[in-house]
Design goal:
This protein is an alpha+beta fold. It is built from eight helices and 14 strands. Strand 1 and strand 2 form a beta hairpin.
Length: 310
């Protein structure tokens, strides 16, 4: 009912009478008033006048009803320890494909290699539960599709020079705008689920905790709609996933790469490797040319850009 009331209020230029709302929704005027009160408590500025109701401002809060076609898939929380933790629990209980856990703030947000992801209000933090029909060997396509979808919409919507850094960070001017974490469980020879968590610096300022990070608000000097980002991301990501088995995701991903042809250091749990990134192969591994001329493939790790000494 919140979805329908908001649709009607947004479509109306000016005041919409309680009588018309009641007729179009098929509920009593008292019920309309109660729903309006709940929306006001959620942060919507809805003026109540003798002639009816007028929506004057909407909060940039990713409530489920703000996403028509996706509202039944979204689990929104003002605050969580981690969206990944909740998504894992839901996935193990049988949550359907493309269920999304969103939090306004994470207390214990995680990045790769057990690093903390600082998750202040104003950022966008969510985990998508996915059940692709893929073998575990092809699961890399899912996370690469997520970063590809995000880099495309950032460039298209906001004209920022966003680039992907292997494996799946997104940087603008070599400053981190977004990070990703993925978890997978398998059953027999197929993926049971893949959870892809994204943290995007939107209207928050991450520089106190991460001096090498940035946000869309810092880059564009204005507030950005998180709802707009999520709406476009859902559409782009789901479209990519619909053909993920046959699509050459790596080829498209490399068109936006900021990692290739530059010196890097890769840090894993067991070693550090330095070389020049010369390619990303067909399974998503980073191909390095080492100082002695040998070539090495790296399947996982954190990537750090190094000064070019040539």
């Amino acid at each position: 009912m919140k979805v329908e009331i908001l649709k009607l209020l947004k479509a109306e230029e000016g005041v919409l009478s309680g009588e018309r709302l009641s007729e179009q929704l098929g509920i009593s005027r008292v019920a309309v008033w109660k729903h309006i009160k709940k929306l006001q408590q959620c942060g919507y500025s809805i003026a109540s006048t003798p002639k009816g109701y007028e929506l004057t401002e909407s909060p940039d809060t990713p409530f489920p009803w703000e996403f028509p076609n996706y509202e039944n898939r979204i689990h929104y929380f003002p605050e969580l320890n981690s969206t990944m933790d909740v998504a894992r629990e839901l996935a193990r209980k049988g949550a359907d494909h493309f269920q999304v856990v969103i939090a306004d703030r994470q207390i214990k947000g995680r990045g790769r290699l057990r690093r903390q992801w600082f998750s202040d209000f104003g950022g966008l933090y969510f985990t998508t539960i996915l059940r692709p029909v893929l073998s575990p060997a092809m699961s890399f396509k899912v996370s690469f599709s997520a970063s590809l979808a995000l880099v495309r919409i950032l460039r298209r919507l906001y004209r920022v020079d966003a680039k992907v850094k292997w494996p799946n960070d997104i940087l603008v001017e070599d400053k981190k705008l977004s990070g990703m974490l993925s978890e997978m469980e398998t059953e027999a020879d197929l993926v049971s689920y893949i959870n892809v968590g994204l943290g995007i610096n939107v209207n928050n300022d991450p520089r106190n905790e991460e001096p090498s990070a940035t946000s869309l608000k810092i880059l564009l000097n204005r507030n950005i709609s998180r709802i707009e980002i999520l709406t476009h991301f859902f559409n782009e990501f789901e479209n990519l996933l619909s053909n993920v088995e046959s699509e050459d995701i790596i080829y498209h991903w490399k068109q936006y790469s900021g990692t290739l042809n530059r010196p890097v250091k890769i840090v894993t749990t067991s070693e550090q490797i330095e070389g020049v990134a010369i390619d990303v192969d067909e399974i998503g591994a980073l191909v390095l040319k080492l100082s002695d001329g040998t070539v090495k493939r790296v399947i996982y790790g954190d990537c750090f850009y190094q000064p070019d000494m040539t």
